[in-house]
Amino acid sequence: MITFKQIKTTINKKLLSNFDIDVSSKSANEGFTRPSFKVELDNVRREGYLTQVEKSCTVRIFYFPADEIDNSVELLDVQEKLGDLFDLKFTVEDRHLGINEPNFDEIDGVLQFEFDLQFFDGRESGINIEDEINNGKDWYEKHPIELMGELDDEEGD
């Protein structure tokens, strides 16, 4: 199963290997160096089903440029490179996850890149689903269900 921690770690490693720039885990009010990245996962969701687990999240990558004032070209360069790195698919472990709704925005001189991930993981349990299905068939063969006939519409009701 892929964990949200693995997703964030993989993104951080991908940023570090493609940019010679620090990836910070500090909050903005704790201070940070420029240039640097910060990665956050938001709207994290996990929904369990009998045989699988659906997971989804929004990935937000913030880029704090070297120059707080004169940074428009720098932001465009980083935007282009991030778009290439996180194009259609994102690989975590041996899985390729589809990237949905990528979006760039600049807020107060900080580049924000976000995209959604949604995927399913099989449950790791000792239950053999085929055996469960066959057991269900055996039970219904021993205990057949009688279908209801049509209900008579009685006049006067």
TrEMBL record:
UniProt-listed Pfam families: Phage_tail_terminator_8 (PF20765)
InterPro entries: Phage_tail_terminator
Protein name: Uncharacterized protein
Organism encoding this protein: Lysinibacillus agricola
Origin organism lineage: Bacteria, Bacillati, Bacillota, Bacilli, Bacillales
